[in-house]
Amino acid sequence: MRRTVITRGWSVRVGAAVVTAAALAGLVTPSAGYAAVTAPPPPPSVPQESTDAAATALAEASDVEKVKAVRAIEVGEATDEWLMLTDKNFVFKVYDKISADKFPQTKAEAYRVYRIVVDRPDAPDATAFIRTGVFDFADRDRIEYARRQEEARLAREARQKAAAWAEIPADAAMLDGTDQNFVYQVWRRSTGPKVKAGAADAWGGDATAWKTFITTTIYTLHTQDQRDAIEKARQEDAEKARILAAQLAKKNAAAILAITAPEPWTNLTDDNFIRQLLTTQELAQPRHVEILNAANAALRSSDPAVWKAFIDTGIYDADKRDAAREKAAREEADRQLVREIKAKAEQSRLRPRLVAAAAAALAGTPADVTKFLSEGQYAVLAQSLMATTPGAKGWYVRSGGGDAWITPGTPGAAGEAKLGESTWKTVAGLADPACYSFESAGHVGSYLRQQDMRVKLHASDGSDQFKLDATWCPKAGLTGSGVTLESKALPGRFMRHINAQIWAANDSGQNWWDGNLDVYKADATWNIVDPDPIISTPLILRWYNDDALRTKIGNPKSPEVVENGVRYRDYANGRLYWKADRGEARMLSGAIIPVFDSLGRFDINGSPAPLAIDQSTCADGTGQFVHYIPERMMSIFWSPSTGAHWVLGAIRDKWASMGWERSELGYPTSDEYDIPGGRRSDFQKGSITWDSATGAIQVYRRVVITLTPTPAPPTP
């Protein structure tokens, strides 16, 4: 039998009177999961930091420090002429006397520092440069000088080879000058018309044009000049052309080794010419091993065609293999150096930005590797130290002088802002290069040090005790991640925050800062993060310190916004909101967000109504909901089939008493709206109304009438 289900409008249940709120009170117990949420405890108070400006004032460099600085730049010994200078003038003298060829970066840094001190006579930069900076830059310059020397050797060889190919006698001035000068000298000295014209064209170009001429163009043009000469000889006598071609082939083969072949060589038989090459010192050099092997292989043959093939093509192919092998060896040596830098940075646990930069260089081109070694590795040493203790994540080590603290900063009325005084340059340990020191990015020459176990920011006085106090040795984080910093001066004591202060502490309980052992390991473990962190607003602090929420909502995808006192920020899977005096930041996502926003976010009709909870999953496992405070005042519910709608006041309370979305009414299908004499909310299977005069609540249920078709009469 076929059954048909028909829904007919909105009505009370079959013939019964309207069911009042009192009649249904207590019929369905509200879902336990929707009970009022206790407000979280307030976050820790931001510390009242006190800055001691005098703590970062550097005393003038000592004579001993100046003597060491002069020796570092290789300009002789420090005479009284040096030692009597003020630090500012000493730096200028460094700039004036240092070799621009061997120490270009040090010279440039000395000039930069001098200009700073001229503009700010009290700036500590000059003293810091004498005490530490000059050594750092001089070491960089020595590494780069060796690299430049190798590049100069390769450039000289390329010029010498090009000159020999073009049959141009080359002196030291021609070979050791610039590429442009070499091109000019080729133009002056060449007898080949095409080479001469090509040199003139290249000379007027840029550095790339000069180098291309030396490494490629000159070979093509000289070959064309030779072919023209051979063709001219052929027009006179074929045999003469053959002899000339053989002679030129030998000249070209010798030129591959940067040798200008004398005429007797060019008249040798092919096998004897190869034997002559084997006697040269050039072919004895390791960088020509492929040519050496190919020459020996050719001579092991008794076939004149093999000898000729070596002279015509074999020597060129072998030269390409030599060049490729040498280039690969240089590039591999550079890559190995980057690998070593990366491995050391990983082991330190203190230089994640250096690790990332090294990894990027290794994944890139040889030019990327070279740039990393010359510049990149020095540009990523600044970073910040963030606490890892639950509730204190998003708090950073900070000091402008004197005592160091952890702090999230104090948000302003606008959006994101820099915390300041919380960026540290991680340098080799002042007392132990196997460990590290933290130099303030804002106060050059000042370091985090322990003094009477309190961690402070002080200017270096150059003493051995200061160097010891300002050196920290990284260990594996006590919590199993991050890094723990052991004091070099106080072995067994670690940089630890407690009550927002920072101490060199242990877990002995000896001092009050050695207590609170339940959080000691977390307090003494740090995360190394990017420099110049922004102030940690309530949104950021909630995201950092709530692991479950962070997993659920994902990473930020846009900056924080402040609008009418409400802070909010969009994340991959939702949004966080916060307003002063409204408790903890709360999370919303999906279609509930625009409904929440349309209601005024935290204020409804001018009345405070912060969220009581994060958006949560309904008890039926399908929908989502969120409650406002005061509890039982307003909620927003969403389901895939109904969308997001809000329910308010007495109507909301009645629906809650029935079991929310698991009640016989289901999810709301409308926001509350006006009706004559009151208000109404519609649901999937009914509605609830409120009488503004009496306060009465009425529940309407959808009537379902099932009709059974009447059987057709039998056929007579």
UniProtKB/TrEMBL annotation:
SUPFAM superfamilies linked: AbfB domain
Keyword terms, alphabetized: Signal
Alpha-L-arabinofuranosidase B arabinose-binding domain location: 387-528
Gene Ontology MF terms: alpha-L-arabinofuranosidase activity
Stored InterPro entries: AbfB_ABD, AbfB_ABD_sf, DUF312_ALF, LGFP
Signal sequence extent: 1-35
Signal listed as a keyword: yes
Gene Ontology terms: biological process: L-arabinose metabolic process
Keyword presence, Repeat: no
CDD domains attached to this UniProt entry: beta-trefoil_ABD_ABFB
Protein's UniProt name: Alpha-L-arabinofuranosidase B arabinose-binding domain-containing protein
